[in-house]
């Protein structure tokens, strides 16, 4: 039987049994719509949670904290955790699983900051929580014309800002050497936190795309060695510096102002001489690398792996997705069983017709292909309908969220991710389920003997 003839007979048979065809399509479309909806929801939530809230593909090595009890733990706590220095960082960065490594150091002494009048209308005062990072971590980020590097000043002698001839430089009173403002970046997490909580509670403008562009170049003041709740115990006199925000970067610390590593290490040496040179080392794993062996190497070197929450969040999303996917698969299975029942009944009703086809030259393979082709058509139509229904439900939920759900950190424009892989998989699953349901009826129809079918 040619493909053209097969298609013509399938179309004729489906047209004759419109009610059975519609019921079968409805059953499979409900299951496919449910499956597509929950998989798209899982993909969308995973993209937001693991792509924006938690870093993916990054492992942070931190100094180990002893958890040994008894006298041994006492001596271990007295000696302190093994410090993370440049030599250890270089050894871990040389691992074959590592694509890139970025050293970090936290500001280890009290400091404060104030500014923001030029964009928010008035100055705001806050404790300064800052962290230094390797400037190479920002190499691929769009930070505008201002470089994110350590001190690039002319260091010309000065007594006032007017003595600094290079645009943008100023004259700190403690060094009397011209230098530019310290470049700094913030993370998207801080922006989302501000938009979702602080802006909503204080009536301040939200930081959208336009306002985010105006953030670049904003300058504010910091005072090192003194905060609003205390001062450094190093005995070094506090001094002030200017800081310029040069952009927003996903490589920045989530809840801290991020500056080049050299600045923070230099300030820590002045105001916190006992502070470790590095507070952590961020390792970006290569695609497909064995992360388990990398974490084992970190622990064998005497360090711990910081828990970013990404693993637990990913596990929670996977479990919830698996639960809803199992329910959807059960619905698809019930639809397949219904299709099997429908095709058994159809084969019984068409015994004489199938016998005539066998008598005029149709083979058992042709009969089996005919039944499976009808099932595939049901799967194709039902799958397409299910995908459309799932997409419409997703659009309705996104619209309701935009209208009625208040803003919260990392609130997405859409909660769903309908990729081509998902849509093609949903259609394939629908067709496969229908063909599996029709397999036994097709085999039974193929085994009918012409004489038996004509005389029944």
What does this entry look like structurally?
- By secondary structure, this protein is of the alpha+beta class.
- The chain has two domains: 3-54 and 313-455, no CATH class; 58-307, no CATH class.
- Helices cover 52% and strands 14% of the residues.
- It is built from 15 helices and eleven strands.
- Helix 12 packs antiparallel against helix 14 (439-446).
- The longest helix has 41 residues, at 364-404.
- Residues 67-79 have low confidence and may be disordered.
Structure characteristics:
456 residues; six-stranded mixed beta sheet; alpha+beta; 2 domains; single chain
Blueprint of the fold:
Blueprint: H1 3-16, H2 18-53, E1 58-63, H3 70-79, H4 86-93, E2 98-106, E3 111-115, H5 117-120, E4 124-127, E5 130-133, E6 182-186, H6 188-202, H7 209-215, E7 219-224, E8 239-248, E9 257-260, H8 261-271, E10 280-285, H9 291-300, E11 303-305, H10 310-349, H11 351-359, H12 364-404, H13 420-437, H14 439-446, H15 450-455
Parallel strand pairs: 5-9, 6-8
Antiparallel strand pairs: 1-10, 1-11, 2-5, 2-10, 3-4, 3-7, 7-8
Helix pairs in contact: 1-12, 2-10, 2-12, 2-13, 10-13, 10-14, 12-13, 12-14
The major sheet is characterized as: 6 strands, mixed
Oligomeric state of this protein: single chain
H/E element sequence:
HHEHHEEHEEEHHEEEHEHEHHHHHH
Distance between the termini: 25 Å
Principal-axes shape call: elongated
Structurally, how many domains make up the residues?
2
Low-confidence stretches: 67-79
Rg from Cα = 33 Å
């Amino acid at each position: 039987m040619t493909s053209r003839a097969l298609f013509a007979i399938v179309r004729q048979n489906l047209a004759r049994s419109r009610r059975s065809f519609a019921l079968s399509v409805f059953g499979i479309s409900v299951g496919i719509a449910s499956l597509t909806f929950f998989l798209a929801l899982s993909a969308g939530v995973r993209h937001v949670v693991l792509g924006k809230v938690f870093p993916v593909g990054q492992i942070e090595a931190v100094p180990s904290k002893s958890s040994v009890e008894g006298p041994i733990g006492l001596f271990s706590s007295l000696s302190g955790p093994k410090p993370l220095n440049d030599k250890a960082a270089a050894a871990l960065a040389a691992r074959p699983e590592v694509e890139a490594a970025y050293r970090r150091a936290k500001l280890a002494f009290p400091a404060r900051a104030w500014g923001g009048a030029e964009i928010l209308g008035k100055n705001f005062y806050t404790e300064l929580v800052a962290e230094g990072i390797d400037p190479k971590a920002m190499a691929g980020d769009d930070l505008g014309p201002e470089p994110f590097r350590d001190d690039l000043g002319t260091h010309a002698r000065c007594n006032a800002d007017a003595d600094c001839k290079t645009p943008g430089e100023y004259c700190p009173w403690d060094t009397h050497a011209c230098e530019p403002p310290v470049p700094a970046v913030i993370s998207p997490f801080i922006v989302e936190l501000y938009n979702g909580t602080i802006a909503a509670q204080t009536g301040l403008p939200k930081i959208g795309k336009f306002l985010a562009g105006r953030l670049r170049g904003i300058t504010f003041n910091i005072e090192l060695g003194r905060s609003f709740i205390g001062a450094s115990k190093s005995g070094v006199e506090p001094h002030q510096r200017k800081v310029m925000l040069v952009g927003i970067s996903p490589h920045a610390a989530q809840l801290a102002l991020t500056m080049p590593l050299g600045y923070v290490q230099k300030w820590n040496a002045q105001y916190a001489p006992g502070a470790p040179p590095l507070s952590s080392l961020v390792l970006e794993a290569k695609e497909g690398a064995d992360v388990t062996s990398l974490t084992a190497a970190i622990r064998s070197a005497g360090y711990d792996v910081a828990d970013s929450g990404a693993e637990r969040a990913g596990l929670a999303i996977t479990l919830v997705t698996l639960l809803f996917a199992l329910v959807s698969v059960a619905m698809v299975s019930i639809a397949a069983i219904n299709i099997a029942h429908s095709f058994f009944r159809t084969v019984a009703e068409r015994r004489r017709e199938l016998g005539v086809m066998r008598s005029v030259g149709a083979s058992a393979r042709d009969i089996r292909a005919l039944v499976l082709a009808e099932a595939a058509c049901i799967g194709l139509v039902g799958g397409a309908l299910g995908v459309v229904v799932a997409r419409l439900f997703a659009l309705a939920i996104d619209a309701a969220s935009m209208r009625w759900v208040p803003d919260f950190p990392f609130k997405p424009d859409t909660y769903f991710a309908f990729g081509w892989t998902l849509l093609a998989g949903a259609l394939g699953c629908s067709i496969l389920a229908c063909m599996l349901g029709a397999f036994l009826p097709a085999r039974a129809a193929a085994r009918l003997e012409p004489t038996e079918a004509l005389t029944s």
